Amino acid sequence: MTTSPTAVICTPLELEHRAVRDLLGGSPAEERRGDSVYELHDFRGRKVQWRLVLALTGRRNEDTSAAVGEALDTWRPQVLLLVGVGGGLRDARVGDVVAATKVYGYEGGQDTDLGLRPRIDSLPTSRILKEQGERVSIEGTWIWRADPEALSAPTVHHRPIASGGKVVTGSTSYTAELIREHCGDATAIDMEGYGAMAAARRARGVEATVIRGVSDLLDDKDKETDRQTQPMAARRAAAFALALLDRYDPEPAERAPAPRAPQSGSTYNFSPGQGGNMNVGSIGDNTTTHIGSIGANSTGRVYRPYEGP
Questions:
Q1: Residue 54 in contact with residue 42, Cβ under 8 Å?
Q2: Which of 108, 131, 203, 229 has a 20 to 30 A CA-CA distance from 47?
Q3: Is residue 1 part of a domain?
């Protein structure tokens, strides 16, 4: 019996959870493990049938790391996706998607008499998921999961994300300046990505990444804007995540076995037919090679190894 591979999608916010659930459809089963409740979905990909586990993790890196670690220990998935909304940096626009290539943790540092000396850490995301995500972007059809009438897909940025415990609402704030100086290639900011990748690093055999839909920019963040843009951004992030999972094959094609080294012993081969030829040999000490043909006017010979003068 073949067991379906498992993928876990973690969402920090309820609206992000609803976005994934709405795109999956159906009636999921619920299962309680310890203090956590998970939703179980069947998700048919291009090559495999997935057991898809949906988990609500809560906000901030510390809580997310604990929740993701618990989900990984419980389900032992092949794939982990942290999916939700984030703030846009650099050239990102509202409605774009950022598929993280690595996640900066910008909170670390040394507080001295001369001021704070930042110590920025970073964790990589899955290389194979990055490559598959780039192909999803090129195909461009992922947006139809979120909006079947869309004429084109929004931009997907395959770039780093900066992650920390602060809600950053100004482009000239201390945190914004710190990110620009020390995480200059980050294209989105969130509060959970670093915690998720830290938990994934401690696990074995899981491919993990972070996918964010851009719901705001640093200078235009307010509650009214969030109510309008966050559901759209969450739905787009969910659509890209499911398209990525749809494309990913957790069981790559098997490689041809390497040729076996010659071994001592005996080999017997038989080839009937008219006018057929066969070459058979044995390599090793104390071996004899027998070659035979069956049919009219056929002959067989025995060759012994050369023993030297």
A1: no
A2: 203
A3: no
Angle between helices 127-139 and 223-247 (to 10 degrees): 100
The answer on 287 and 218 residing in a single domain is no
- The full DSSP string for the chain is -PPPPEEEEEESSHHHHHHHHHHH-S--EEEEETTEEEEEEEEE-SS-EEEEEEEE--SSHHHHHHHHHHHHHHH--SEEEEEEEEEE-TT--TT-EEEEEEEEE---EEEETTEEEE--EEEE--HHHHHHHHHHHHH-TTHHHH-TT-SSPPPEEEEEEEE-S-----TTSHHHHHHHHHSTT--EEESSHHHHHHHHHHSSS-EEEEEEEEEEEGGG--HHHHHHHHHHHHHHHHHHHHHHHHH--SSPPPPPPPPPPP-SS-------SSS--------STT--EEE---STT---EEE------
Give the C-alpha separation, 133 to 101, whole Å. 10
Q: Are residues 97 and 30 in the same domain?
A: yes
Q: What is the pLDDT of residues 231-245, one digit of tens each?
A: 999 999 999 999 999
- CA-to-CA distance for 83 and 193, rounded, in angstroms? 9
pLDDT tens string 149-185: 999 999 999 999 999 999 898 888 999 999 999 999 9
Write out the residue range of the structural domain in which residue 305 sits: 265-309
Whether residues 86 and 223 fall in one domain: yes
Please give the pLDDT value at position 301.
57
Instruction: Give the number of domains in the chain.
Output: 2
Same-domain pairing of 173 and 299 = no
Q: What is the mean pLDDT of residues 27-42?
A: 92
